[in-house]
Design goal:
The structure holds two protein chains of two kinds. Chain A contains 15 helices and 17 strands. Chain A is an alpha+beta fold. Chain A folds into three domains: 296 residues, no CATH class; 113 residues, no CATH class; 59 residues, Arc Repressor Mutant, subunit A, CATH 1.10.10.410. Chain A is elongated, with a radius of gyration of 30 Å. The model of chain A has no long low-confidence stretch (mean pLDDT 92). Chain B is flat and about 55 Å long. Classes of the chains: A alpha+beta, B alpha+beta. Strand 10 of chain A pairs antiparallel with strand 3 of chain B.
Chain lengths: 484, 95
């Protein structure tokens, strides 16, 4: 397998597990009525519960519980009808109560699975260990003053789902595919916006290395990586670092590390040495959380079509390749766009244009399909012109470029620029005759056996016709003429 | 179960309580005594009893997802020893 790393002593395998913190989409916080909206003025969305004031009691938000159950069902996971909140104790300036309310031994969601979409339409299953609900901490700013840190508690108490995977991934690419797939499932479900830049989805990465087939090695945890690209870079760096240590006769120390994206390296967080001694105990302020069967059933019935189901349906109903389908389903809006284009049209041609030209143009300008400069209806109009032979596929690419710039209809552009494909055999024969007359020497060579010149003649005829001659007709008529 | 000096020092560190070295042996004896007293509970057979996370026979009550709190920055910051520009200000904590 090409997934192994080479070291001085032979090949090594990476073992990767991910813990993702996904911010629950809700109006209010997990245990208080303060708002969750991103970007507010500091400390304006803080209740006394969030500030850890003595005597304040937490009361759980119904929607946060429902969102966790919905996510669990979307991950095909077991829902635990009884779960318990615990206190996770540690001291930090942005954790006012001195503990985080979390779930330890009895999380709300148990084992599930997620299917990764890999290059070439391949898939791979990764286990979900658990999902639990917990509070987010506040935010510390360290760059405002040389000797002090500034603390904003707006985020303190916002509901998070911690989603823990099994150590089932073996390459950085698989870790990337896991995060993309998890993010798209969360977005389809509407339980987390998956916005890594704003910190509403963050990943802790567990990495170890081993000789293929050997028991797991000692792992290191890289905390709070905030983009899929950085996760992949951190994994590559960390695996190489561990291999180098072991091959030099050293041993790996289990520790928490951070990824420095600017230097492209991971380094030890010494302050976290005692961090694993959290002294969890059940929170005496909170009773066990009971989720009724009726609630689970009604959420299960309201689940939308999820990415894997959509992928299967696109392949089945539209006959498009698995890989195209897995590209389209990553974002629901992309799949919707494709279906709007493909409705009543050649679905393979539609998939090619959407995943090819359109996505390339969107990537280049950094836009989402939701603010595509060319609407689904207009792209459909262009495809109609190809299908009814009004224009060739090559001319269509030029028309597409003009549509990008001007936003005009394909039909209007074709009329305006006179790009209508020439399908009149007489006209094409005229062009062919002129080309053959002007290239008598090449014609003689061709007829004496130099077959490769056929391409040259096609090129000349297309050029003379301004690209407008129907390519199939040119081929057919040219063959006849050349034969003499 | 009895606690040694090192364990007491570790617990004190986790709880951010400064304990002078000479106080550790005395605390270890006291804490061990408390643990021994509680350990009398081990003589009860609980093998057929579900672990209990609350002494009240009730389950958690839900709150609706409405914004009913916040917008009280001055009150939130009122007890902070130092604040500036709407933030709590604390001694620098950074990696």
């Amino acid at each position: 397998m090409a997934t192994l790393l080479h070291g001085a002593t032979g090949e090594w395998e990476m073992v990767i597990g991910l813990e993702v913190h996904a911010q629950v989409t809700s109006k209010a916080k997990l245990f208080s009525g303060a708002a969750t909206e991103f970007g507010a003025e500091p400390n304006t969305q803080v209740s006394f519960v969030d500030a850890g004031m003595p005597g304040m009691l937490p009361v759980i938000n119904r929607v946060c519980v429902e969102q966790a159950v919905r996510t669990g069902l979307g991950l095909k996971a077991q829902i635990n009808k009884v779960s318990v909140f615990d206190r996770k104790n540690y001291f930090y300036a942005d954790l006012p109560a001195g503990y985080q309310i979390s779930q330890y031994l009895q999380p709300i969601v148990g084992k599930g699975t997620i299917i990764l979409d890999l290059a070439g339409g391949e898939t791979r299953e990764v286990g979900i260990t658990r999902l639990h609900l917990e509070q987010d901490a506040g935010k510390s700013l360290h760059d405002q003053d040389p000797s002090s840190s500034f603390v904003d508690l707006n985020r303190a108490g916002v509901a998070l789902m911690e989603i823990v995977s099994e150590p089932d991934m073996r390459t950085a690419e698989e870790a990337g595919a896991y995060l993309r797939k998890l993010r798209s499932i969360l977005r389809y479900l509407g339980t987390c916006d998956g916005n890594m830049e704003q910190g509403s989805m963050r990943a802790d990465v567990n990495v170890s290395v081993r000789k293929p087939g050997a028991p797991f090695g000692t792992r290191c945890e890289i905390k709070n990586v905030n983009s899929i690209r950085y996760v992949q870079q951190a994994i590559e760096y960390e695996a190489r670092r561990q291999i180098d240590i072991i091959e030099d006769g050293g041993t790996i120390k289990q520790e928490t590390r951070l990824y420095d994206a600017r230097k492209g390296e991971t380094r030890s967080m010494r302050s976290k040495e005692d961090a694993h001694d959290y002294r969890y105990f059940p929170d005496p302020d909170l009773l066990p959380l009971v989720v009724q069967d009726g609630l689970i059933k009604s959420i299960a019935e309201s689940l939308p079509e999820l990415p894997d189901e959509k992928k299967a349906r696109l392949v089945r109903d539209y006959g498009i390749p698995l890989y195209d389908a897995s590209v389209l389903i990553l974002e629901k809006e992309r799949a919707d766009f494709f279906e709007a284009v493909a409705k009543g049209r050649d679905s393979k041609l539609s998939a090619n244009w959407v995943t090819g030209e359109l996505f390339a143009a969107l990537n280049k300008t950094g836009r989402d399909v939701t603010d595509s400069p060319i609407s689904a209806a207009k792209l459909g109009g262009l495809i109609d012109l190809i299908s009814d032979n009004t224009i060739s596929g090559r001319i269509a690419k030029d028309v597409f470029e003009i549509m990008l710039e001007t936003g005009k209809d394909a039909g209007a552009i074709v009329e305006e620029k006179g790009l209508r494909q020439v399908t009149d055999t007489g006209a094409i024969e005229g062009v062919i005759d002129a080309v053959l007359a002007a290239n008598a020497d090449k014609l003689a060579e061709y007829r004496s056996g130099k077959d490769k010149l056929f391409g040259f003649f096609v090129g000349q005829v297309m050029k003379q016709s301004g690209g407008k001659a129907n390519p199939a007709l040119v081929n057919e008529l040219l063959k006849k003429k050349l034969a003499g | 179960m009895s606690l040694d000096k090192a364990t007491v020092a570790h617990i004190a560190k986790l709880a951010r309580i400064a304990v002078p070295e000479q106080d550790l042996p005395g605390l270890a004896t006291e804490l061990s005594g408390i643990l021994k007293w509680i350990e009398q509970l081990d003589s009860v057979d609980t093998s057929k009893v579900e672990p209990l996370s609350s002494v009240v026979n009730a389950t958690l009550r839900f709150r609706e997802d409405n914004i009913t709190d916040g917008g009280q920055r001055d009150a939130v910051l009122a007890n902070a020893p130092v604040s500036a520009q709407g933030f709590f200000v604390v001694p620098k904590v950074v990696e």
